[in-house]
């Protein structure tokens, strides 16, 4: 037995000072920590988010809907700064009791409809506006399968690989190897699928592409966890080709800037209330 081997106690207790980069906002209980009402803008759709991969999925979809001429998809996007604990404000937890971004409030219904979890928001919007989600049974099932594949797989990429490779207090071989293996397996799943398809589900661009791109497309572009070389992402040539195709779409470029609060100043759009905010 190694001197440094961790022996779990009989009953786990929370050490608020452990946990790495995000230890100050991670906690084992739910609910709000402070009173804070959410702002409400002029449009029926109110988005409360941050330009992390899960947030970007939704803003890409909204910008794609607007590019299609779906004018009712105009939206207000408000910044939720998770590093400052905005997700634990009372107003936000009323919309998302899980305290994770993004969260959507649709005021066009009576009473207003709350939607949380990024995949649920994407399905809600795609159904509401009749776009990017096939209606034919088999095609819809394929799209939903890949969307839920992304929802189930991304925690291994973000919470697993990303945490231990980029954010943990110390780098440890076992968890990094464990999650790197799984991420590479997932990339191989995508690469094999895209070897015979233009898009994730075939010939048509769908919400599955937007959701998967926000995580795995950005990963192979070398913009996630500074891990492109470590994971040899360029070897997944079909994923790289697909990611470039999506990257070049104007609505994708716009969506990636919404609620962005880091990087070059010209790429940051903390709040979005009108198309001109991105022009």
Describe the protein in words.
By secondary structure, this protein is of the alpha+beta class. The chain folds into two domains: 146 residues, Glutaredoxin; 112 residues, Glutathione S-transferase Yfyf (Class Pi), Chain A, domain 2 (Up-down Bundle), CATH 1.20.1050. 43% of the residues lie in helices and 6% in strands. It contains nine helices and four strands. The protein has a four-stranded mixed β-sheet with strand order 2-1-3-4, with helices on one face. Strand 3 and strand 4 form a beta hairpin. Helix 5 packs across helix 8. The radius of gyration is 19 Å and the shape is globular. It starts with 44 loop residues before the first strand and ends in a 24-residue tail after the last helix. The model has no long low-confidence stretch (mean pLDDT 95).
Short description:
The chain has helices at residues 53-67, 90-95, 118-129, 137-167, 173-194, 207-220, 228-231, 237-247, 250-255, and strands at residues 45-49, 75-79, 103-106, 113-116. With 279 residues, the chain is an alpha+beta fold. A four-stranded mixed β-sheet has the order 2-1-3-4, covered by helices on one side.
